[in-house]
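Just scan my protein:

. . .
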Amino acid sequence: MKKKPPVLSFPKTEAVVPSDRSWHNGGDIEIALYARSLHRAAKTLIETLDLQPNPKTVWDACPVILLYRQSVELHLKALVDEGSNYLPSPTDPISLYKTHSLRWLAQIVCQIVKTIQWENEFKSEGIASLSDFSALVKELEALDPVSCAVHSDSRCSDGSVPHQLQPPNVVRLAKRLDGLLDLLDTTTDAMAATWNQMSGEEFPAGGDLKPTIQ
């Protein structure tokens, strides 16, 4: 009788982010590079997908969703971290570090954009308003493959992938997410540049800033 391999047990530890530091604890460059690598990996995987009906590859598009999801999460956190400078009460860095809720992060992004009155600039292909932005983030968060499989009302006994996760639909969503990621990246850079131009001056009442989004 074969012996069972020993079970490795690691001590459970909680990551601690000092309250006087940002959520990334100085690792903003590394995290930004990682987020962009996730995006590139998602696009590379998309190029390999079989878009024709094929029961053997029908679930192959699902990892694309997970790659985009984490990349969007990190881009949202970067924007919230930078944009919190403009809010009366900056977002708590520990809460920002621990959260994985895209909807919560999107709500703060909307608050920041409204505060500095950049609604007219916060647009990209497929995102014409903050409502469009929130809807796309909500759609992405709802597409967790495991949740879709567990809660799908249209689940088939043959293991077919839910409609929204079928390769052609994932590819269409990915194109919209490409625009979202570019928008988040550009806006974060613009907020940082604008804040630096202010040189620590008090935020003007009414958010009367000149955006540098290009």
